[in-house]
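Standup notes
- HV: blocked on the assembly model, inputs below
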Amino acid sequence: MNSNTFGRLFSFTSFGESHGPALGCVVDGCPPRVPLAEADIQPRLDRRRPGACRFVSQRGETDRARILSGVFEGKTTGHPICVLVENQDQRPNDYRQLRDVFRPGHADAAHAAKYGIRDHRGGGRSSARETLARVAAGAVARQMLGAFPETAGIRVAAGLIALGQVRADPAKWDDSAIDANPLFCPDPAAVPAMLAALEETMRGGDSLGGVVEIRASGVPAGLGEPVYDRLDARIAQACMGLNAVKGVEIGDGFAAARASGSANNDQMRRPASGRLEDAFLSNHAGGVLGGVSTGQPITARAAIKPTPSISIRQETIGKDLGNVEISVAGRHDPAVAIRAAPVLEAMFWLILADFFLLRRAGENRG
Amino acid sequence: MNSNTFGRLFSFTSFGESHGPALGCVVDGCPPRVPLAEADIQPRLDRRRPGACRFVSQRGETDRARILSGVFEGKTTGHPICVLVENQDQRPNDYRQLRDVFRPGHADAAHAAKYGIRDHRGGGRSSARETLARVAAGAVARQMLGAFPETAGIRVAAGLIALGQVRADPAKWDDSAIDANPLFCPDPAAVPAMLAALEETMRGGDSLGGVVEIRASGVPAGLGEPVYDRLDARIAQACMGLNAVKGVEIGDGFAAARASGSANNDQMRRPASGRLEDAFLSNHAGGVLGGVSTGQPITARAAIKPTPSISIRQETIGKDLGNVEISVAGRHDPAVAIRAAPVLEAMFWLILADFFLLRRAGENRG
Amino acid sequence: MNSNTFGRLFSFTSFGESHGPALGCVVDGCPPRVPLAEADIQPRLDRRRPGACRFVSQRGETDRARILSGVFEGKTTGHPICVLVENQDQRPNDYRQLRDVFRPGHADAAHAAKYGIRDHRGGGRSSARETLARVAAGAVARQMLGAFPETAGIRVAAGLIALGQVRADPAKWDDSAIDANPLFCPDPAAVPAMLAALEETMRGGDSLGGVVEIRASGVPAGLGEPVYDRLDARIAQACMGLNAVKGVEIGDGFAAARASGSANNDQMRRPASGRLEDAFLSNHAGGVLGGVSTGQPITARAAIKPTPSISIRQETIGKDLGNVEISVAGRHDPAVAIRAAPVLEAMFWLILADFFLLRRAGENRG
Amino acid sequence: MNSNTFGRLFSFTSFGESHGPALGCVVDGCPPRVPLAEADIQPRLDRRRPGACRFVSQRGETDRARILSGVFEGKTTGHPICVLVENQDQRPNDYRQLRDVFRPGHADAAHAAKYGIRDHRGGGRSSARETLARVAAGAVARQMLGAFPETAGIRVAAGLIALGQVRADPAKWDDSAIDANPLFCPDPAAVPAMLAALEETMRGGDSLGGVVEIRASGVPAGLGEPVYDRLDARIAQACMGLNAVKGVEIGDGFAAARASGSANNDQMRRPASGRLEDAFLSNHAGGVLGGVSTGQPITARAAIKPTPSISIRQETIGKDLGNVEISVAGRHDPAVAIRAAPVLEAMFWLILADFFLLRRAGENRG
């Protein structure tokens, strides 16, 4: 598996830079005969699109997805599906001043050390714009899972549950609220305070971090592969593999480390339904035990650092290691956490799709 | 890459069950001519061995490592290295009562749903005993990195920084303290309170969670592969891939989500040494930017849930989904977090070894 | 590694169908700072292009390659390189009659059994048109190897050494002759007879098979990974992975099976140059021993069956398994072996690039 | 996938050297609940065992297989299966004279160039003794395929069809004859001439090459993954990945290159049985079209060079590149082709097992 590929059976390979001609992905391993059209992908891209509201980057992109392969007469063929998005609002010259400077909190210095060459325009390959490949691939994964009876009931929702110091109330989580506000916040009551914090931060030329929670329900038991390719390990990898993520929790997460065994164990009772997932009396585990789904809802959280690009003046160095003062203007998100929600949702679909195929391969109910 | 294999170039495959004849690993991809003997592996295994003190499982195993292949006249040959540990203190009958019962908080129910067959003896494949394979492989990785000038200066230390409600002071971290107490705690001042909490918990038949921090210094810049195989993503996968881990943080972790960009960015100044890693004025990032090491110390934390096996009576179900009450007696760790420290250390060595080889393959300084 | 990906470190993923909007590849793992432009790829594509002469498919494609990512200011960045070729001369209606018919000797029946859906237009994914992705990726591999001193001297040439019953004289192999005739034949003396055989076959509405030999010189010793990822095993996989190839030989190939050990062994004498490759007194092995390159020229041959599309009437069945008589008209190559030469050459570059990076990763000359 | 691992879903990793303590394999990806015991593996190992008759190496090994993991109460658990064989008749001192000499036709020189260190004892890792890992893993694959209704009817047989200049008659192939003679020859009529050739060669201190044919029947249609991981490409890789193999053919192989399309195409007629595999009027393709099985018998041939170890005196060089004369005494097979048959059979089982699981993962008959 290569560095720009994610997944073992249902996999995708991502390519493209922020200010190059195009970005896209090649999805490999999707079973044949899954209904798929550009119209299944476009709405997912639209949700993460820059310029969608004033709290995200104002770059003017339509992010129009073209399927170049792998679909015939409205159905997948079992062959690789290339989805391409051409860049339209490239402004490489906006970045001329950043050519030889390492922006604090960005990949610039580390990537320069690694590669000795760097497409500095808008972060190049390390731009958040790369995540459109994940969202496009995730839309294919969602479509695929929808085509099999056993997984058609899966629902995945990701919402912003904290922005800076403002926290949503997890108990008030409402899936339908997520798309009803520009912050993907599942708790409408928290939105005004979040917006206020954002306004104030933008006025000060600063940025905010946040936390995104992802919830997946209807996931069949038995997904995930012990020992190293566990469902929770893969979720952790996928979340931490997103720009700016610095922490991941499954179920109770760090709170579990402070609990006693008697409080943290999810006890069980005979399920009237006869289904394992209905046996559990609680869900501290977040739907994963021994690296494998239990059928209970899977819950995870990703901690996202504040956007490193801020207009407040900061000290840094250049390629020659000399001192520079920098104020990063431009079309940046004041809180990258906001647009992380649709991306993390996509990664969940991709993970579930991959483990579903792996389970099909390996099961023996004979 | 298969489920029981970890790593792309420097990889290992683990096998074995808690009460089967043996456990072990096959390390593949280790360069030739690295000095390696059983004496380089044994001390690492001894640190995680059960029975080492009264606060861990009392199972009587010597965990004697035999190298079966890949070493010739004291040096690696470039061929796969199999390290085998035969089980000696198997007591399968101790587990007879658990044959048809799903222990709360354990993999039992999920794995039964997945496989339809289950080696119930001491957790079978999902036993913490599997981690000796990781420790053995990690010892080979450590040896390998020690053999190359650029990585010979790497130091990795993992310590228990929280046990239940007791927290060590991160500022008092002392590498040399870690092996001087039975809890692998880097802050000697925190040990008495931790021990007291442990004693009390054991008396009550309950268990405790904890947090392990891992610190790696001397890591060269440029390790890690954007986009999906980032250094931090792989760390997250490896930590979450360990039994009982429910959360992972890199650098400031969840605290970064509450910070502003101006506070969280690591500003830089011209380094007198001319080395990038000396330019940073802080290390909120934990040594990783854009998925790639910066040369600063890498810091990560893993949240570990309390041992699910407790003697307090709990409600659960059996294979037939019928109700059972269970009290898990036996040779269990009161806090699995304690023995996680040597294992997480090993995983760090393995990750660094793999990314070091990947960087050697891909670099072009021409 | 996914089905449409080839290579472990220097890898590429191919996508696209014969009559879809576009075909292309994503090359991952190319080191940074390698000079690369579309002009380095285009000439390689032009060599395998349909319509180049009257003995190959007359489809009118310019096969214009666009680099969409991974190159910045004329150099690779270390990030994935997407090369896209848009189809221009799609004529899906030409294939309407083939929609429900399984052409003899083609993938049609097997793929219908596998996928239950099939893009019948020009073979869809199983069209020889897919090989342009290999040629584009091979051009990148060639460019990469040219950028490192140790591999800059590698030369790869593939030539048609047999067409139907006509055989070229291997002793008269002349690299420079290959591009001087439309058949990629390295022995000019054999060309007239080959052309005559081709004319006659075309007149009869039939097709011919052939043999392509590939020779690589200047390959450093030590490439290839025992035990399963041997240089010769990978060559065999790559050759047999090309449409219509039914046999592969390395060095003396099947003739070695009839030889005695004393005749087949390549004896050695002290090399005046001090270089291992100069020690061998013969090269029955074809440059590979124990799966690893010796520094001698690598030689391989691929046996290619006659184009299955012929206008001679044949018996076959349709999707409903009912009887059909078929005469395949259209723009087919009378001998697919001809255009296989540039593709096999590309595969050699790709294999050598991958093993070169693998050797860099694993070597220890300390 | 690492160099010592074969397979994507049903995979195995091999380890061990000819004169080290042990050899073995770790099979990963075997579905649970497959009946498996050491008695299913041992007979396969016994067939390839040295010392079984006077025409193979006289090394005295019992090759006793121990299953160390992955089996519980007579069934696989879905976890990795380690099979270990301890070496018993190590005679490292027999090889002392070869320590610094490169035997002609062996891996010695190439491996020395690659690794800079070499376990010279009996070929070390490049010994044919490594193939016992393949045979053990193949026995597990065979057992697994036997446990699923769709694949329970698969039969694989490999036989020696040529030894030196002596050729068996393919038309007289008789599966049951293979184990009735010490050469694994499927044509009893050819055995006397083969034995005579062998005797004469041994008297002269020389060795012979040979050809092994492998036939698999009962293989369901739809196995194999276009484009790069084709069934025939994988067969080619596996055959060429065996010591001493220099050529591979599928179906008509090199003869197809001399045929016309009208003669080589396998025409089809409506199958009375309604099954695709019964539609074909011939099997020039060897059961594979477009990289995918058609349901017809799969046929392949591997050309195996003569054993390079001969007692006839030969010129060679040593580690210091100086001239040496060498006569290789010891316990060598006069024709490695003989013992290749059981190994190639095992590789077929492994390939079919892997593609069967891949097909289960990817199919959609909904």
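- HV (later): unblocked. The interface with chain D takes residues 9, 29, 31-34, 78-79, 147-149, 226, 357-358, 360-364, 366 of chain A (CB under 8 Å). The CA atoms of residues 138 and 347 of chain A lie 6 Å apart.
- Next: hand off to the docking folks.
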